[in-house]
Write a structure and sequence with these properties.
Layout lengths: L27 E2 L8 E6 L2 E10 L2 E4 L11 E4 L9 E10 L15 E5 L26 E6 L2 E3 L2 E2 L4 E8 L1 H7 L10 E5 L15 E4 L2 E8 L10 E5 L4 H7 L3
Antiparallel strand pairs: 1-11, 2-3, 2-5, 3-4, 4-7, 5-6, 6-7, 8-11, 8-13, 9-10, 11-12, 12-15, 13-14, 14-15
Pfam families: Trypsin (PF00089)
Protein name: Trypsin-like serine peptidase
Keywords: Disulfide bond, Hydrolase, Protease, Serine protease, Signal, Zymogen
């Protein structure tokens, strides 16, 4: 199976069995002037995860991306994770207090990054709108996720990619994941009906956009675009009050 255009949503660690790697397959090249909220989250070795601009000083991402990481930065306003745009250092990290990395269940998989210097807002760098608290996303809703995740083993996509998905019924997703992982009320699933598409390692923490809002954060999943195993996303609407509390603006 080709993994060319496969892009992100796995944890920053590799789990032995099962392989809970979020993958996106079936994507197409994307441009930040259409996705101006997208950022690349980087450590000293380069791109590691995605993130979304929610304020000129703050980035929303996945908690699992940040465990054990230091000297973080983000790149915004570029189609490429390794050049162009604007780079900002991260001064503070806030991981949700109920996230437990030892449990490896990805519940409460959400975090906020405080930048050391504000981003210069413009056509290619803009905050994304957030859902209201507990806002519902209906089954079958068209959604879009994006990132620079792996296109093949250990190879990141140099170009930002995107893929169109639809949300999956929560009960159906829970039943499909029995014995693999738990789909909690703070998660939802999205995938493709008639073709292979999904998010991949390196896309974790990135955006899932729907109804003109940031509805999800790329979190986890089983395998790569596997039938009956859609990608699993942190439900941003469940954390709207927490975000408001943690952002000091």
């Amino acid at each position: 199976m080709s993994r060319s255009l496969c892009f992100l949503f796995l944890a920053s660690k590799i789990l032995a069995n099962p392989d809970l790697n979020g993958r996106i397959i079936g994507g197409t090249p994307a441009h930040v002037y259409k996705l101006p909220y997208q950022v690349s989250l980087q450590n000293e070795e380069g791109h590691m995860c995605g993130g979304s601009i929610i304020h000129k000083s703050y980035i929303l991402t996945a908690a699992h991306c940040l465990i054990g990481e230091k000297k973080l930065s983000i790149r915004a306003g570029s189609d490429f994770h390794d050049k162009g745009g604007t780079v900002r250092q991260v001064c503070a990290v806030t991981i949700h207090n109920k996230y437990n990395d030892d449990k490896e269940d990805y519940d409460y998989d959400i975090a906020i990054l405080k930048l050391c210097q504000d981003l210069p807002l413009g056509d290619k760098i803009l905050p994304v709108a957030l859902p209201t608290f507990n806002e519902i996303i209906k089954d079958g809703t068209p959604v879009l996720t994006s990132g620079w995740g792996y296109t093949e083993k250990n190879v990141l996509s140099p170009q930002l990619l995107q893929v169109a998905l639809v949300t999956v019924n929560q009960t159906t997703c829970r039943n499909n994941y029995k014995g693999v992982g738990v789909i909690t009320g703070r998660m939802f699933c999205a995938g493709c009906k008639n073709k292979l598409c999904d998010s991949c390692q390196g896309d974790s923490g990135g955006p899932l956009f729907a109804n003109r809002k940031l509805m999800g954060v790329v979190s986890w999943g089983y395998g790569c675009a596997m039938k009956d195993f859609p990608g699993v996303y942190t439900k941003v609407a469940k954390f709207r009050k927490w975000i408001r509390k943690e952002i000091k603006i």
